[in-house]
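Objective 1b: paired records.
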Amino acid sequence: HRVTSDDADDGIDIGDIVWTPDGEKILYSRGGDYEFPEKPAANPALLPQGVEEDVYMVGVRGGDTRQLGPGRMPEVSPDGATVAFLDKDQIWTVDLRDPSAKPVQLLHERGRLDSLLWSPDGKYLAFTTNRGDHAFVAVYSFPDKALRYLDPSTEIDRDPVWSPDSRHVAFVRIPPDTSGVSFKPRREAVPWTIQVADVATGVGHEIWRA
């Protein structure tokens, strides 16, 4: 059955669809370019006011839609109380229990952020921060209000996954692209690895190599 009420022929996309843990609400973003998120929002209808990318929440049976704030890629905490999302390459949070709550910036971070992922116990938020020729997997601790990079290196870390006990994060590590550097050897294939890092210390180790 129909849930959203947008009926204008404006070509604005909807994406980033996620559930609340109780299955009663759906969060999504509207606007933006889901194929190339770093590009400005498409405006195929030439709307004079332009197109902004915003995060919304709506009940699974339809009804009133709540606009949570500008951004994309919403991720709901395991207890359903908080949503984290990205806006202008920064992480913002909104209290879903308070209908009047406004977005609050969680931290100030460099690089292009991606892959928001709550820990199963809801105490941590993992994400990736891409710095161009290298990338980190980072974890923000809500109890400590502290940020930690997991086993940081000069390579590209991506695709974090939590362990069920929220104590470790596994992720993929690949070497940076050096094909444009003439004095370095050119690889026939990328020797990616799987790393596992301890969230408390940030220390990691390799468990598998392609």
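Objective 1b, second protein:
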Amino acid sequence: MKKDVYPSILKGEIKAPGSKSIAQRMVAAALMAKGKTVLYDYPDSADCQAALQVAQSLGAVVTKVGNEVTIQGGFPQNFQTGIRNPKPQIFCGESGLASRMFTPIAALYSEAIKVEGEGSLLTRPFTEFDSVLPALGAECESTAGKLPIRVKGPMLGGKASLDGSVSSQFLTGLLMALPKASNNSKIEVQNLTSIPYVKMTMEVAGLFGVEIKHTNYETFTVKSNQAYQPLKVAVPGDWSGAAFLIVAAAIASEEGVTITNLSNDITQADSRILEVLEKAKVHFTIDKKGLFVKQSEIEAFEFDATDCPDLMPPIAALAAFANGVSTLKGAKRLVHKESNRSKALQEEFGKANIRVVVRDDEMMVYPSHIRPAILNSHNDHRIAMAAALLGIGGDKISVMGAECVSKSYPDFFEAMQSIGAKISGK
């Protein structure tokens, strides 16, 4: 799919999509909660649909009517009765979170289960599970450190150590699963990145009645045989998706845009976009109605996105409109995403006359007059949305492979059109 994006004048009000990060964690908790959980405002993204499919494969009864999802959980349980045995495979699509989170949960089952995925997920690292899951009592065999992975439990709990430098999603999976293990657990973590995402995990587990303790995010202790409690809850708005709306308003809305459905009730790393706005001297206000952002003279800025790497594509786009060179830290965290985002931003922004230089962990963005260009999404939803921002605030940009936005924000282009963006193509 190609989308042609033209310079636009934005205004109005728009609702942020639901958080896929929180939604997937809630699905995992609902799977393990005995009873009926209802999730309102459930996102329609591909990753969120993959999480529902995995929950079904692991025994839950899932029904979806519009944006309301009902999950009858209580799994894993004693499968001696043969009732609702898990399927021998779970398919995670291209979701890094679903695959890394549900792998330890699958390891709670006494049956052998293969964890599979597709696309770029097949190239992403999963080596941590090869040593960690056996240390906790489960069998685990990856494919040279990648998917597919075969696990067989039950995972009993105990002590293990984990390198958290590649992704916090490995730890998220363990923290979600270990409360259901038969033994208390202690996980030592070195070099943990994306601490806000781990906080999110613990907060979601807490909503469902499960307690996880930590010491300086280096040692995590999990009591065994805890019970996830079913509940009825709305999925909060997504700061990750909203970041693209926010940047679009900052570069192309003289009247301003109000983004609703955003809160900090559950920790979201990408709410730090507000710090970026402050550093870049973007005019914004927050009130009961929502976040109001207005077109501003963008100041060059510095920002460390190590703990919020998903912000790098939208803030790199913001930096393209600044009055000087901006320096962004955390480039190393971009390598193992849906694409190598560090390389993709260099290549695609360069086509539009925006020079991006990466040195070790730093990314420097050199603003210039944006010229018309055809940019490749690299089958990466955040690269596609960042490319669109260059068109909205600069000159015509054709985004090739634009359908990949379905991974996190299926109606991104329609949402942008609703506030005035000029977009064509199918």
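The first helix runs from residue 20 to 32. The CA atoms of residues 10 and 253 lie 5 Å apart.
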